[in-house]
């Protein structure tokens, strides 16, 4: 099917190499064939070849690239509202984890859930995310922590990718926490991750490899061992870094050539400088900063250092029980001090780069995937200023309309 979207108020191309540039085109047209964009530009310059294609009327709405949630823990069992309430009363994330709550409690609930149960639940979450304009999602394991349980989570993501048009990047996070059965044998658990989990995960298909580097989780030296094994299996790297304290996570991210590093609330200037030099992208996670009551990272420190910034929901039952990416972008403006234009790039072009998919996602340019969202908004500033339950009027994924609102 070949089609042309016309009557577009403005369109933000968000060029992949555009620094702060939104690539705004007023009175735009967008032509696509099957899954791919063929042409984008001012409607008045639409080439004659495309003018006879089937027209789709945008109704004067504005168009942005499909949003990319580049950091989530989508498949999990149970919830942890009592921990949220305890943190509101003053308990810390670390104290709750030390008492057997936190990640360990979700590991129990996830192990108790069948693969089908996890699949059905994640499918429901994903459908609601797509209705908000999300067209690609990064999904982590890390709540199984045995070979079979980690594979169970990763198979759920494969099944979701086969069912929905949304693009999924799955990430192996065996080094999320040391499971209770290995409490007295950390070395043994790291060996299990490296020697048994990583080879089996690599057989399942391409995956990123992540590690939670933090006091109470994994040391930089343990993470280095895991990353070495992952690299030997061709897995690109990302990490949870400097979330609750400065553990040298940002420096490690640069050292191992991680494509991205998330959280970074406690990252040192030296860590950020190292990330800038290595080209590592910073992923800001405003829900987690707020629900764990840590001072949110001032994104201007990253931007001044020359680091590209992405924003994600970090959807998980502990630190970020919310999958509303536009709301996370609004918070990124309020607490991380991005401008609305920077926030839009952070969830499109930069997010695509953070998950290694910028060859086909994140920008509205010829050759890229036809993933776009029709918004009923006057401007990008207005979109992230007057925050609404859902400003997305229609969502196109791989060239097909996926969601309509009356
Ligand atoms: O990114 N920090 C580690 N992982 C998640 C939290 C996971 C959980 O609490 O279940 C995060 O915030």
Describe the model.
This protein has 16 helices and 16 strands. By secondary structure, the chain is an alpha/beta fold. The strands form 3 sheets. Strands 6-7-8-9-10-11-12-13 form an 8-stranded parallel beta sheet. Strands 3-2-1-4 form a 4-stranded mixed beta sheet, with no helix packed on it. A 4-stranded antiparallel beta sheet has the order 5-14-15-16, with no helix packed on it. Strand 10, helix 9 (249-255) and strand 11 (260-263) form a beta-alpha-beta unit. The longest helix has 19 residues, at 186-204. It is globular, with a radius of gyration of 21 Å. The structure holds N-(iminomethyl)-L-glutamic acid (NIG).
Summarize the structure.
Helices cover 38% and strands 22% of the residues. By secondary structure, the protein is an alpha/beta fold.
Question: What are its keywords?
Answer:
alpha/beta, 16 strands, 406 residues, eight-stranded parallel β-sheet
- Give the helix/strand class: alpha/beta
Instruction: Enumerate the distinct ligands.
Output: N-(iminomethyl)-L-glutamic acid
The percentage of residues in β strands lies in 15-25%
Percent helix: 25-40%
Strand order of the largest sheet: 6-7-8-9-10-11-12-13
Unreliable residue runs: none
Q: Oligomeric form of this entry?
A: single chain
Mean pLDDT: 96
User: What's the helix count?
Assistant: 16
How many strands? 16
Radius of gyration over all CA atoms, rounded: 21 Å
Distance between the termini: 25 Å
Largest sheet: 8 strands, parallel
Give the overall form.
globular
């Amino acid at each position: 099917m070949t089609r042309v979207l016309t009557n577009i108020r403005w369109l933000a191309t968000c060029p992949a190499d555009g620094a702060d540039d939104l690539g705004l085109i007023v009175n735009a047209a967008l032509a696509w064939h099957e899954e791919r964009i063929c042409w984008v530009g001012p409607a008045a310059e639409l080439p004659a070849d495309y003018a006879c294609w089937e027209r789709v009327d945008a109704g004067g709405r504005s168009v942005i690239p499909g949003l990319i949630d580049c950091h989530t823990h989508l498949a999990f069992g149970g919830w942890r509202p009592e921990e949220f309430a305890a943190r509101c009363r003053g308990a810390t994330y670390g104290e709750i984890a030390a008492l057997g709550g936190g990640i360990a409690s979700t590991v129990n609930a996830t192990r108790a859930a069948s693969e089908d149960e996890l699949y059905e639940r994640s499918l429901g979450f994903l459908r609601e995310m797509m209705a908000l304009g999300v067209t690609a999602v990064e999904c982590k394991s890390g709540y199984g922590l045995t070979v079979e349980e980690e594979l169970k989570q990763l198979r759920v993501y494969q099944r979701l990718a086969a069912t929905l048009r949304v693009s999924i990047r799955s990430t192996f996070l065996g080094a999320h926490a040391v499971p209770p059965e290995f409490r007295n044998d950390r070395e043994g658990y790291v060996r299990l991750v490296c020697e048994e989990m990583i080879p089996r995960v690599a057989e399942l298909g391409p995956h990123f490899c992540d590690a939670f580097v933090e006091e109470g989780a994994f040391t930089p030296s343990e993470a280095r061992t895991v990353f070495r094994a992952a690299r030997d299996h061709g897995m690109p790297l990302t990490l949870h870094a400097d979330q609750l304290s400065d553990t040298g996570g940002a420096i490690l991210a640069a050292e191992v050539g991680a494509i991205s590093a998330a959280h970074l609330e406690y990252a040192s200037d030296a860590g950020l400088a190292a990330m800038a030099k290595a080209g590592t992208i910073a992923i800001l996670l405003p829900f987690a900063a707020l629900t764990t009551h840590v001072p949110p990272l001032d994104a201007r420190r990253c931007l001044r250092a020359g680091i590209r910034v992405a924003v994600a929901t970090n959807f998980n039952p502990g630190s970020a029980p919310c999958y509303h990416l536009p709301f996370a972008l609004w918070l990124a403006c309020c607490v991380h001090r991005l401008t609305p234009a920077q926030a839009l790039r952070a969830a499109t072009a930069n997010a695509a780069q953070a998950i290694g998919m910028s060859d086909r996602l994140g920008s509205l340019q010829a050759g890229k995937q036809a993933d776009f969202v029709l918004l009923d908004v006057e401007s990008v500033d207005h979109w992230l200023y007057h925050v609404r339950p859902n400003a997305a009027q229609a969502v196109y994924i791989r060239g097909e309309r996926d969601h309509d609102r009356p």
